Amino acid sequence: MKEGRRPYLIELICALADNGVAFIICGGMAAVYHGVERMTMDLDISLDMVPGNVRRFLETVRDLGLVPRAPVPADSLLDPETLNRFVKEKNARVFTFWDPESPYRQIDVFLTGDQAYSLLEDHTVPAKVDGRTVRVLSVEKLLEMKTRIPSPRDKDRHDIEALRKVMGNLS
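The structure corresponding to this sequence follows.
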């Protein structure tokens, strides 16, 4: 890492926050925030899909040098019909933006209704990230979402066990 440069996950979160993007940190980063010891390489977010917010998000990822992983225009994120088609026809759960020069530098935007910003925003906690306040999915909601994964990966099963321990420690 270069002198004075932030880790890329912190850089991504701060850029979104600095540009006024409404988002919720979910997935691995949320698990880490709640005390789960695990490695995560990408940033999973639930994005408020109102057009102005999506435009701020698209401007931010463009400035970060991120492009869609799939061969589709970034502006597809602004078209609910196109997104619904991705979910129904391609079984897409996320829209991924990545840096082709640094493939681990990526943001996954949730696409499915059960992960919609409006459904999750009341299940968040504030978190400080490099001086910025951002929203992180609550441990309870994160655990609920992880247990609903149809075919959980090994890391999801690890997260479920670890999140249950965290929940036990909160009691």
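Residues 8-138 form a domain with the Beta Polymerase; domain 2 fold (CATH 3.30.460.40).
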